[in-house]
Write a structure and sequence with these properties.
Length: about 425
């Protein structure tokens, strides 16, 4: 229950009034009615003037307090030169146990939004920190350990409610200059919903379309926005694909899934074909914007180019006379960026046993390589290296089974690696 503040200013006025009456009676004794009228008028004027002064000061201090709480000048969300130091973040979360990583991330975020988000400037800084580490959350949701994933999703829901409460408290005081905070909170909600739904069910929510992306200022927030907006359109295209071609539970980029797409792509009606292309082209546009604003950040480059490579591959399948960059060129660039970051992380962290997040980036590198191999095998093409030089010749692919992509075990609790490795082995051995 919310308790009301004790009205100290009224007590102060009453005390001043009593003291004034007593002092005036001592200084100016009342002898007749005229003296009494003059006395009452003088004391009344004094009390009224003092009361007006007290209320004016209270109003001034209240306005000043509101201005301090809601002022946004110099906040990090509007800093166009802001960059993220991922090396320092990865050093901060260098634990080997994924449970410890999740606990530390949630503990830091909960502390920030509980104790250090009472003003607009503080809340803006906390939101930016959330945006900075939002790339880590898929590794808390994408796990073969169902209990671990469910626990993190529940804790994330509580954290989002806390953020919403902080935002609403500030907006109830002043809405005029807090629009950027509101849009950033909407962006965080939309991305977390996307990340959770990606592993829960085949539903594509449109909450990202509700974010006013053009209002986002710094390059990190813009990169996150355009990358996930591109993923939203990419997933919408996949929804059209699955609706037209019955893939059952097959991954689109599994060998069997790719072969089925090649076999049944003629089933697309003109309307579905047009819709499929529109979504894919919108996705590519978003990924291009993400790359432009990211200024080729080494970490985001690997994610964005990988997303664009998959999008481009599907677009090349459906669009006659496609003239843009090839999916293989984009995939090679993505794999090069991912290889670089795994090397740099090893040099920076200098640990004998890799951290959970270090293994997560190794997973991304291995997953991208397996997807490329899956596509080439499904099309009966030779497997090439990062420089497009033939490595394993089709159709025998001699030596591929000894490649590190297939020999290296799954780096952690992540999905897809084991299944893709098994599919490649099974598709080659009968030959």
């Amino acid at each position: 229950m919310k308790t009301s503040r004790f009205p100290y200013h009224y007590i102060l006025i009453a005390i001043v009034a009593v003291i004034s009456v007593y002092a005036c009676l001592k200084v100016y004794p009342i002898k007749n009615t005229a003296d009494l009228v003059l006395f009452v008028t003088t004391v009344g004027s004094l009390v009224v003037s003092f009361s007006a002064f007290i209320f004016a000061m209270k109003t001034y201090l209240s306005i000043d307090s509101v201005n301090v709480i809601t002022q946004m000048e110099g906040n990090v969300l509007e800093n166009e030169n802001y960059v993220t130091s991922f090396t320092s973040l990865l050093k901060q979360y260098d634990m080997e146990d994924p449970d410890e990583v999740g606990e530390e991330i949630f503990k830091n975020l909960e502390r920030k939004f509980t104790k250090h988000s009472k003003t607009a400037i503080e809340l803006a800084s906390s939101l930016q920190y959330f945006i900075d580490i939002i790339v880590f959350f898929p590794y808390l949701f994408n796990s073969k350990d169902e209990a671990y994933r469910s626990r993190n999703i529940n804790r994330m829901s509580k954290l989002l409610r806390l953020i919403e409460k902080r935002k609403n408290t500030l907006i109830s005081i002043s809405t005029g200059n807090l629009i950027l905070i509101e849009e950033t909170v909407k962006l965080i909600h939309a991305i977390i919903n996307y990340q959770k739904l990606l592993y829960e069910r085949d539903i594509v929510e449109s909450t990202l379309l509700e974010v006013k992306g053009t209002m986002l200022k710094n390059s990190v927030t813009q990169t996150v926005y355009y990358n996930y907006l591109g993923l939203y359109y990419y997933r919408k295209a996949n929804h059209v694909l699955r609706r037209t071609i019955h893939l059952d539970n097959l991954d689109v980029f599994s060998i069997e899934g790719l072969k089925r797409i090649h076999r049944d792509i003629s089933l697309f009606s003109d309307d579905d074909r047009e819709l499929f292309q529109i979504y894919l082209q919108e996705a590519k546009t978003c990924f291009h914007k993400a790359m432009d604003v990211s200024e080729k950040d080494i970490m985001w480059e690997g994610f964005i180019l990988y997303n664009e490579a998959r999008t481009t591959y599907l677009l090349q399948l459906i669009q006659e006379g496609y003239e843009g960059e090839s999916w293989e060129l984009l995939m090679n660039q993505a794999l090069t960026a991912r290889k670089r970051i795994t090397i740099f992380l090893h040099d920076i962290l200098e640990k004998d046993t890799p951290s959970h997040l270090q293994m997560a980036f190794e997973f991304e590198n291995q997953l991208g390589g397996l997807v490329k191999v899956n596509i080439l095998i499904a099309e009966n093409k030779s497997v090439t290296d990062l420089y497009n030089k033939e490595k394993y010749s089709s159709p025998l692919y001699e030596g591929l089974l000894q490649d590190t992509l297939l020999q290296k075990p799954n780096p952690g609790r992540f999905n897809k690696i084991d299944k893709f490795q098994e599919d490649i082995v099974n598709s080659i051995r009968p030959l």
